[in-house]
Amino acid sequence: MLIDGVFSGGGLKGFALVGAYQVLEEKGYRFQRVAGTSAGAILASFIAAGYTAKEIEELLNELDVALLLDPRKTIIPLPIMKWLWLYWRLGLYQGKALEQWFLEKLSAKGIYTFGDLPPGSLKLIASDLTNGKMMVLPDDLPDYGVSVDSFPIARALRMSCGIPFFFEPVTMKVGSGDTIVVDGGVLSNFPMWLFDDANGKKERPVLGLKLSRQQEDMPGHVIKNGLDLFEALFSTMKNAHDEKYISRSHEKNIIFIPVDDYSATQFDLDEETKNELMEKGRIRTEQFLKTW
Fold first, then answer.
1. Which amino acids are annotated catalytic?
2. What pTM did the predictor assign?
């Protein structure tokens, strides 16, 4: 059965999305168009490039995620330098290793730019902080004077996955100025609305995979200090837009995978935790498909 798919962000918790995709593939579902933010953008891009669920699992099993952390080298080996780089470069890690890994894996399937894919088959979300607006890639690239067909998907993924303060933002040269782009989750962590037409209609069934509980089951924020306040602000900011769209009618097309007990930036995940996350994705998808 041909469907469209939308996958939420969630950092390293995205291993659960792979488990869900395995079950969908086993049940005969095939994605015509895919979209996602951050971790969801990675799965969407690999699916669009032609990777099977088994191949994606093998890629992740081979990957040492800690190698994707690439701090800038300094001649002054002091711990404070890391925080100075955060101040001047706006992130603890460069993100180049992450983008290079995307490039290597996509090129293995002969996919380099959006021009290598059928038009409209892949859409990724990023956040333009300079102009204060959401970016849908590749749709919005012409607004920045950039060719859709020549833009590297690895770079678009790097933009969609650029967790603020964790990875350095991507800087796009636009005219005589710079545009700073970070993780799409800042503005839309679950773009379930992407495949609606002008009248809110859908071309084919759209299935969403969301790394969270349903809204009514989510606990409120406990705010006791400044860090709690920042986390609550960021969580509210990234979810408010999407929650406004998701109604009871949309929920019947969303697989909610509760992974709140796991960290999105735990780059030292062990094999046991990876397998736990994937199994959560498989179990929830099996349950969901019994009534979908």
1. 38, 183
2. 0.86
